[in-house]
Amino acid sequence: MVGPGTGVAPFRAAIQERSAQGKKENVLFFGCRQESKDFYCRSEWEDLMKRGYLTLFTAFSRDQEEKVYVQHRIAEHRQLLWDLISKGAYFYIAGNAKQMPAAVMD
């Protein structure tokens, strides 16, 4: 699941449901501008990670000199994604409909 900014909202419900069903292979790529201001649902994600229900990759585009976006994190973890998709996993994207989806597809 790729949910930048408020685009993470539909994935929050999906991850909550999957966790309640005992499904642990949930992977979320979350991106926003600043970790200190925009890290939506942070405590919930951290709790799910501790309990083994979530693997979370973050990208905070304005927290360092060179911008880092979710597509950069996806590229870094492409083998994990390929392995999951090869096993039948679904890949969902929500968020900005301008540049982000095309950049993720690259």
Describe the model.
With 106 residues, this protein is α/β, with parallel strands linked by helices. It has helices spanning 9-20, 35-38, 42-50, 70-76, 78-86, 100-105; strands spanning 2-4, 27-32, 55-60. It has a 3-stranded parallel β-sheet, sandwiched between helices. α1 links the parallel β1 and β2. The longest helix has 12 residues, at 9-20. The model has no long low-confidence stretch (mean pLDDT 87).
In short:
The protein is an alpha/beta fold and 106 residues long.
Number of strands: 3
Tally the helices.
Answer: 6
In percent, how helical is the residue content? 40-55%
How are the strands of the largest sheet arranged? 1-2-3
- What spatial form do the alpha-carbon principal axes imply? globular
Radius of gyration: 13 Å
Biggest beta-sheet profile: 3 strands, parallel
Portion of residues in beta strands equals: 5-15%
Query: Which structural class do you get from the secondary structure elements?
Result: alpha/beta
**pLDDT below 50 for ≥5 consecutive residues: which ranges?**
none
Please tell me the overall pLDDT. Answer: 87
List the secondary-structure elements in sequence, H or E. Answer: EHEHHEHHH
Distance between the termini: 16 Å
Please describe the structure with a list of short key phrases separated by commas or semicolons:
106 residues, alpha/beta, 6 helices, 3 strands, 44% helix
